[in-house]
Amino acid sequence: MNFRLLRLSLLGLSIGIGLIGLGAYYIKNQAIHFNQDSDRHLPNLGGPFTLVDQFGKTRTEQDFRGKYMLVYFGYTFCPDVCPLGLRNLSSALATLGRDLDQVAPIFITIDPERDTVESLQSYASTIHSSFVMLTGTQRELDPVLKSYNVYAVKAKPDGTMADYLMDHSSLIYLMDRNGTLVDFFPHTASPKEIADKIHKHLMQEIQKS
Fold first, then answer.
1. From CA 136, how far away is CA 129, in angstroms rounded?
2. Which end of the chain has fewer CB atoms < 10 Å from its terminal CB, N or C?
3. Residues 104, 187 within the same domain
4. 129 and 183 in one domain?
5. Are 85 and 72 in contact (CB under 8 A)?
6. What is the CATH number of the domain that holds 64?
7. Is residue 38 part of a domain?
8. Is the domain of 132 the same as that of 204?
9. 0.85 cut: is pTM over it?
10. Residue 71 sits in which domain range?
11. How confident is the model over 37-65, as pLDDT tens digits?
12. Residue 168 annotated as part of some ligand binding site
């Protein structure tokens, strides 16, 4: 093989790898690139689910109708992103006062293989007591992840599946009393930002009534 052909081959390989990487980046980030203008045109996310909570009780989206749902997707083995998001959420919930009764915070696992009912119950003791922790089979969870446009795949940093991590999008979804998306936050949103947005939507509801 001459040098010119070798250079062309290497160039083609580099472009191919770059396109694969770009595609993966797009897939991972399309879940979080919502319109963030002041007049948000929010996507139609959310939908029905039938899962099991941390006490082994079957729960559906209908159980939370009449309340604002704060929905977060994550996993209990998450080393950094999920703990931060849940800590911010828990702190926000602690400041809501009487408005807390109007909100249902929901954690839905992206790692059903390890997030059993027992592990969710144990993890629930580390966050706000009002959280409903949900798990199910992968087959039950897949349509839920899809309905919220959640990105979640296993990551193998050491090339094995022994102690895998999950590479995932990390948004907090605020759904109204009918299950319609009305706002969202990154997991890095401060407790005040989250609480203020919840109060804002509750006040808008009162003003419209």
1. 21
2. C
3. yes
4. yes
5. yes
6. 3.40.30.10
7. no
8. yes
9. no
10. 50-208
11. 434 578 999 999 999 999 999 999 999 99
12. yes
pLDDT reading at 84 higher than 50: yes
Whole-number Cα distances in Å, 130 to 69, 113, 126, 133, 186: 12, 24, 11, 10, 20
Q: How many C-alpha atoms does 12 have within 13 Å on its Cβ side?
A: 6
In-domain check, residue 37: no
User: 33 labelled as ligand-binding?
Assistant: no
Query: Between residues 72 and 3, which one has the greater pLDDT?
Result: 72
Q: Which of 64-68, 129-133, 148-152, 161-165 has the lowest mean pLDDT?
A: 161-165
Residue 187 annotated as part of some ligand binding site: no
21 and 78, same domain (yes or no): no
Model confidence band, residue 155 (pLDDT cutoffs 50, 70, 90) = confident
- Is there a single domain that holds both residue 150 and residue 183? yes
Average pLDDT over residues 110-117: 97
| One domain for residues 112 and 161 | yes
Domain count within the chain? 2
